[in-house]
Amino acid sequence: MTALVRLRLDISYDGSDFAGWARQPGQRTVQGTIEDALARLLRLDPPPVLTVAGRTDAGVHARGQVAHLVVPVAAYSVINGTMPRRLAGLLPPDVRVWRVSVAPEGFDARFSALSRRYVYRVGDDPVGVEPLRRHDVLWHPRPLNLDRMNAAAGLLLGEHDFAAYCRKREGATTIRRLLRYEWERESRHIAAATVQADAFCHSMVRALVGAMLMVGDGRREIEWPSEVLAARVRDSAVNVAPARGLSLEEISYPDDEGLAQRAQETRRVRTLNATADPSSCAS
Q1: If you average pLDDT over every residue of the chain, what do you get?
Q2: Among 137, 161, 201, 233, which is most buried by a count of CB atoms within 10 Å?
Q3: All residues at 6 or more sequence positions from 23 whose CB lies less than 8 Å from its CB, including other chains
Q4: What is the mean pLDDT of residues 141-158?
């Protein structure tokens, strides 16, 4: 039998010109781009398949993405220690693999994760966004009151059914545990939302941001986002914020000894007040 090794990849990318993470026929995707580069480097046909911690949508960026793959030991041993540098010569400038390491026993990039942390940036200068930041900052033409937004965001923390803020997928749960949702000023006219959860369902982060923008500019009351949450149905009044302001910043994992147990726990079907299955993408 062929000896295999599981590798962890730490990745960042500018999502502006990608049709999301997941490989799609005829589309330029982050997964497809990296897998094709790995296939050339490792001389593997078909290309190895990456398992990712959080599948991002078209236009979403990442500074702290994590993925794993399984490759033959013989292929990896030839280039051990030089993979990031060699991949840099094969990858386009809008995606980088910063680190490649042998994964600890039990590691699964997706199921071993404890949480995902995203940041969404919004510029509320009435003139617009600095042109050099146009790909990672959303322009909101109305001034934002962050005290109101933080008061509303605090009402959403904890484990809930976030169906009102998710695009429902057949057979997938919308129950999530929101660990952190805070807004702060990075500069005078740029507000940044830090959103952290054990997992996110499809479009959840951007829907949460869209709801808070309506509170921040005074169009909705502070209690409105929590009232929407309690209804547990998708609300057409919640606008999903555009992808360009969103960046995946960090994936958190337990100590090596807890990786396998965490992966086993998170594969279970989630119900309220029970352990969860984080199968989802965040966007």
Answers
A1: 94
A2: 201
A3: 29, 31, 32, 35
A4: 98
Q: Collect all residues with Cβ–Cβ distance below 8 Å to 198 and sequence separation of at least 6.
A: 114, 115, 116, 176, 177, 179, 266, 276, 278
Choose, from 57, 198, 235, 277, the residue flagged as catalytic. Answer: 57
Q: Is the C-alpha dihedral spanning 176, 179, 181, 185 positive or negative? A: negative
Asked if residue 193 lies in contact with residue 212, where contact means CB atoms within 8 angstroms, the answer is: yes
2-54 tens-digit pLDDT: 899 999 999 999 999 999 999 999 999 999 999 999 999 999 999 999 999 99
> Would residue 147 show up in a list of annotated catalytic residues for this protein?
no
Give CA–CA dist 195/184, Å, rounded.
12
Average pLDDT over residues 81-98: 97
Q: What local confidence, expressed as pLDDT, does residue 277 receive?
A: 43
pLDDT-based confidence at 235, cuts 50/70/90? confident
- Provide the pLDDT for residue 170: 77
Q: In 3D, which of 190, 195, 200 has the Cα closest to residue 249? A: 195
What is the pTM for the complete model shown? 0.93
